[in-house]
Amino acid sequence: SAVISQKPSRDICQRGTSLTIQCQVDSQVTMMFWYRQQPGQSLTLIATANQGSEATYESGFVIDKFPISRPNLTFSTLTVSNMSPEDSSIYLCSTAGSEETQYFGPGTRLLVL
Amino acid sequence: AQSVTQLGSHVSVSEGALVLLRCNYSSSVPPYLFWYVQYPNQGLQLLLKYTTGATLVKGINGFEAEFKKSETSFHLTKPSAHMSDAAEYFCAVSVKGTYKYIFGTGTRLKVLA
Fold first, then answer.
1. Do B53 and B71 meet the contact criterion of CB atoms below 8 Å apart?
2. Count of A-B CB contacts under 8 Å
3. Consecutive 10-residue averages of pLDDT for chain A (113 residues)
């Protein structure tokens, strides 16, 4: 399984600002995913990021709010733009392995004041 | 469309007792099923998965789960709970070829000394 790291591990931000979260994988992967886990809740898929193409967003998530980059097969970023307290969540990236298995990074814990 | 229901948002067991975490799914096509564990301040770790073949699957840390198509269930069990099992557990369903997970709402397991 791939080893995934995320930066930053946590952050406290002011409303109206933006934060870019980095996801680094130790091997080349085709598919990467970004999830949001709101306090006390389950994971919700934000978007799928494939290298060389635009990210595919799930219903309720838009590119202007959550722009994603996927410059190569080992790296992706998620930006949370114009943040509000409702954006306080854990953001996780994951990669796809065999048989639909996904491997997750440690998450970025974001608090927006 | 797929869905996952985890019965019991909180489960408490005594150390050494049987652990049973319930997961029921809904899928119009044969599903892939997963259990993940999330320890405090960490990402998700794959416990086990069912794709095809043997319906009783064994995972890490002594956990196992049985796919029961007639009951649309994929309950997670462990014969003897250990203090280190205290965590949040997520059941997820996917459809072959989509790589899209639908997560349950999670069950927080507490192990009592």
1. no
2. 51
3. 92 97 94 92 92 90 96 95 96 89 94 97
